[in-house]
UniProtKB/TrEMBL annotation:
Record protein name field: Uncharacterized protein
């Protein structure tokens, strides 16, 4: 055991008490969207076949290839007069379309061009100022919602006096991505941030040669400081690439601008530094401040480009989050096949926006807050650590309140989670045809009833915000996270710690009373993700473990011991090989039961299960078909978080034993996220040479609108997804090898989104790595 009493709270040199200026992000040249060239969507747009495919009010006629109407004067803009297509076409959510036409009016005025189809949102809702001479117009737009039955309409209302309006050459096409070529970077793949002086230093060379090749390490002055021979490898199973590895662990000299060379391949530059992970430790947590709901983001803390008004504080056009109703019956009927609703509203302000959207989901918020609490709590129990997470370490409003800043950040989410609890004594709610007392349970999630477009500033989101039905999973997640918070806050804010424990206790009891209220498997794309989970026995296990660790009470230990996970094998407990996640949380219980002191009788068996799990990941890393030293055997949505959660297991094995084999394995696996992968891609903004930059987020859709910023340094993309499914991925990733299924495109939500549970995994691992 590798334990120590209370950790020192020393500030690392990088952790200044005042805001440091945000890393200047190099403005990216905004390349024009590639010229559309996919099939014409508008039939007979040049009117060479008469009025076929079009209708108008009033009726018009074709003249010189133009559709011309005599439009009467009308008081207001709108569809009092119009020209529109008579057939339906598909508008795909998050794809990109360009519309061209030429038009004139004998009296100058503005017309509106739109796709007036439900759900009505500003997919295409553009103003074209007509003049007396024909003028070409061109609009590019990205639909926020799927519209399988779209029509195109020119609204001609608002003319000051009767006039001749003529429209011609109407053309609409989907973006043409056929010229896209995937950039796999240099053949020599390294961690582009760098390596720790006393850590492992492994690189991967993609090569078809099975011969041993010489390599050299060159410093920034061009001087060769080390050389050696490659170790020929196999074919990497996840990329199909033949590879060799380069081990330069013996180099311990710090420096920046190193490059590796082998044959004609030259790596991206990297550093060797003992403080390598300190800036990223801070930036990975800074991401959460940027995701905060219910508070203005301060330019002095976040950087000028990242300031914004408070989101969702019930100021129009926002419809929440101070008084949020339950889902409207016409929507809940679709989701639950019964008219569930409730007769109260809740103040569910605060919390973090989940990902690229602005919804807030209890199961995902809970695991994210929990991982931050775990990052803090390990510093209390692992020996020899200073605590660089203390007050003043983050650029957040609470940086001078005598509470460690990582706890302040976690609290922003916890306060939201507590508000999602059904008030005591609430009237019963509908579940499977019966009225059930759901008091004390947590609503599963709250979000917009329809998707908003990219970008959308949170303060400008006009959609209805809705609470969804309480769920057992959400309730247990709240119980676990709040029980953890009660431990960490006990020495900083007793009242809050007690509030958390009371909420956790109520939630836990409510979940036991309602053990099988499951969220539906789909939300029918009604503005949010389903976050459904068909098995909540792992949630019961996690909640019981945290309640026991916090209270020491026998009732929770009994529940823990009666849970099937108590006797489950390591594979089941740790969800090996894919790893733990928001839906599979037994591993979190096991990690905390191993690390946090308690009187549990089988403590050594629990510790052993962590080591056994770590050994299974070591076997994945050492497999001869693994060219990149990671702990992944599959590439699901958000695979980077799976990679990192698996590292947390191995890193905890090191924390528990001090066995350097685990330390080296965990550090080596982290290289994958920062560029030692088949795409030579650093998935973290601000860290590396070939860096994910066009993350899918309503906050950071710079690729679509240069007036919003790219994601801030420390934001991580979801990463390779072997089942990628979104418009850019469907165009450019057909038939990809799993590790190559990634595209740095703002519309690729299945490979390039940001998410709180992914950055929390990054924060934990980088917080750990910064200690080494
Ligand atoms: C009108 O469009 C059709 C279909 O794209 C094309 O074949 C035809 O040549 C065009 N006619 C004129 C006059 O541009
Ligand atoms: C042209 O219009 C006629 C009806 O007026 C229609 O039957 C025909 O299919 C159209 N041709 C094309 C190529 O769309
Ligand atoms: C005009 O717009 C209104 C409101 O958007 C709609 O209810 C109506 O059906 C539209 N009229 C026509 C002729 O499309
Ligand atoms: C379309 O744009 C007009 C003018 O900007 C705006 O008033 C209207 O609310 C928009 N409609 C939708 C559905 O966004
Ligand atoms: C939309 O089109 C689909 C087929 O593409 C059809 O099944 C559906 O009924 C249509 N919906 C509406 C509202 O017209
Ligand atoms: C439509 O486009 C064609 C091809 O560019 C051009 O020759 C023609 O003049 C245009 N017609 C109108 C009415 O703008
Ligand atoms: C729209 O017009 C631009 C400029 O003339 C042209 O490059 C583009 O191909 C056109 N797009 C469509 C969909 O017709
Ligand atoms: C290795 O061989 C494959 C198949 O011939 C080829 O596609 C690939 O480009 C080669 N890779 C390198 C790095 O030369
Ligand atoms: C604690 O840190 C010191 C200095 O870095 C080191 O010499 C010592 O071995 C460490 N002790 C443990 C138990 O890791
Ligand atoms: C909700 O329902 C309960 C019991 O049916 C009732 O006492 C209460 O007044 C209702 N509250 C509101 C806000 O309608
Ligand atoms: C672990 O338990 C699961 C579920 O009971 C079972 O399917 C699996 O085969 C077991 N694995 C091992 C290695 O025993
Ligand atoms: C450290 O862990 C590795 C991997 O499980 C194991 O092979 C080795 O024996 C351990 N070393 C010690 C000193 O326990
Ligand atoms: Ca603080
Ligand atoms: Ca589960």
């Amino acid at each position: 055991m590798h334990r120590h009493s209370a950790a020192l709270c020393l500030l690392a040199s990088s952790a200044l008490t005042e805001a440091r200026s945000v890393v200047a992000l190099k403005p990216r040249d905004v390349s024009p969207l590639s010229v559309p060239g996919t099939p014409q969507i508008i039939a007979n747009g040049n009117f060479s076949n008469g009025t076929y495919g079009w209708e108008s009010s009033p009726a018009g006629q074709i003249r010189d290839g133009l559709y011309c109407l005599t439009v009467p004067a009308s008081a207001s803009a709108g569809n009092s007069s119009y020209l529109r297509t008579t057939y339906d076409f598909l508008e795909t959510k998050n794809d990109i379309y360009t519309l061209n036409f030429t038009a004139s009016s004998s009296v100058g005025f503005d017309i509106i061009v739109l796709t007036p189809d439900p759900p009505l949102d500003p997919n295409l809702n553009m103003t074209a100022p007509l003049t007396t001479s024909l003028h070409p117009f061109s609009f590019t737009f990205s639909p926020a919602n799927q519209a399988p039955n779209a029509t195109l309409e020119f609204d001609l209302g608002g003319l000051p006096s009767q006039a001749q309006v003529c429209i011609g050459n109407v053309s609409m096409k989907r973006i043409d991505r056929s010229s896209y070529v995937q950039d796999v970077g240099p053949a020599l793949k390294v961690n582009q941030l760098g390596y720790l002086p006393q850590g492992p230093k492994i690189a991967t060379l993609v090569t078809n040669s099975t011969n041993i090749m010489p390599w050299s390490l060159v410093n920034s002055a061009g001087t060769m400081i080390a050389q050696g021979s490659t170790r020929p490898g196999n074919v990497d199973a996840a990329s199909g690439q033949s590879f060799a590895t380069i081990d330069f662990s013996s180099v311990t000299q710090s420096g920046t601008g190193y490059v590796l060379r082998a044959g004609s391949a030259i790596s991206f530059p990297f550093s060797i530094s003992s403080t390598l992970y300190e800036p990223l430790r801070q930036d990975s947590l800074q991401f959460f401040y940027q995701q905060r709901s219910g508070i203005a983001i301060d330019a002095a803390l976040a950087g000028q480009g990242y300031a914004r008004a408070a989101g969702h504080v019930q100021i129009l056009p926002n419809q929440g989050d101070v008084k949020v109703p339950c889902q409207a019956v016409h929507d809940s009927l679709v989701a639950y096949l019964e008219p569930w609703t409730c007769n109260y509203t809740l103040d569910v302000t605060r919390g973090w926006y989940d990902a690229g959207d602005q919804g807030k989901y209890v199961v995902n918020g809970g695991i994210s807050a929990a991982q931050l609490l775990m990052e803090f709590e390990r510093t209390q129990h692992v020996g020899n650590l200073t605590n660089p997470l203390c007050d003043g370490s983050l650029r957040i409003p609470e940086r001078n309140n005598n509470v460690p800043d990582i706890l302040d950040e976690a609290r922003w989410e916890l306060e939201f989670l507590l508000k999602m609890q059904v008030p005591a004594g609430s009237p019963p709610q509908l579940f499977n045809g019966s009225l059930v007392d759901m008091s004390g349970m947590a609503h599963h999630k709250m979000h917009d009833n329809q998707w908003t477009p990219l970008p959308t500033d949170p303060s400008q989101d006009p959609k209805r915000r809705e609470l969804h039905r309480p769920s057992t999973a959400g309730t247990l997640n709240l119980a676990a996270a709040a029980a953890m918070a009660a431990r960490s806050f006990a020495s900083f804010d007793k009242a809050f710690a007690q509030q958390c424990l009371a909420a956790a206790t109520t939630a836990y009891a409510a979940a036991k009373k309602n053990p099988a209220i499951l969220a539906p498997g789909t939300d029918w794309d009604l503005g949010g993700g389903a976050y459904s989970d068909g098995d909540v026995s792992d949630e019961f296990y996690w909640a019981a473990a945290e309640m026991y660790l916090t209270t020491g009470q026998q009732q929770y230990l009994t529940d823990l011991q009666n849970n099937s996970y108590y006797t489950a094998n390591t594979t089941t407990l740790f969800s090996i090989p894919s790893g733990f996640s928001w839906a599979s949380v037994a591993a979190l219980a096991q990690l905390d039961l191993a690390l946090i002191p308690s009187n549990i009788s089988n403590h050594s068996a629990i510790v052993q299960s962590v080591l056994d799990a770590a050994d299974m990941y070591l076997a994945v890393q050492r497999n001869s078909s693994n060219g990149y030293g990671h702990f992944l055997t599959s590439y699901p949505w958000g695979s980077n978080s799976n990679a990192l959660n698996n590292i947390q297991i191995v890193a905890t094995a090191y924390d528990l034993t001090g066995n350097a084999t685990y330390r080296d394995a965990a550090l080596q696996a982290l290289d994958y996220i920062l560029g030692r992968n088949a795409l030579a891609q650093s998935y973290i903004r601000g860290y590396g040479s070939k860096v994910s930059s066009n993350m899918h987020s309503r906050l950071y859709a710079h690729e679509l609108d240069v007036s919003v910023p790219q994601a801030p340094a420390g934001s991580m993309a979801g990463g390779a997804n072997e089942d990628a499914n979104d418009p850019p991925a469907n165009d450019v990733l057909q038939g990809c090898e799993p590790m190559l299924c990634y595209v740095d495109d703002v519309n690729s939500y299945s490979t390039n989104e940001v998410a709180i549970n992914w950055n929390s995994a990054l924060a934990w691992v980088v917080g750990w790595a910064a200690n080494h």
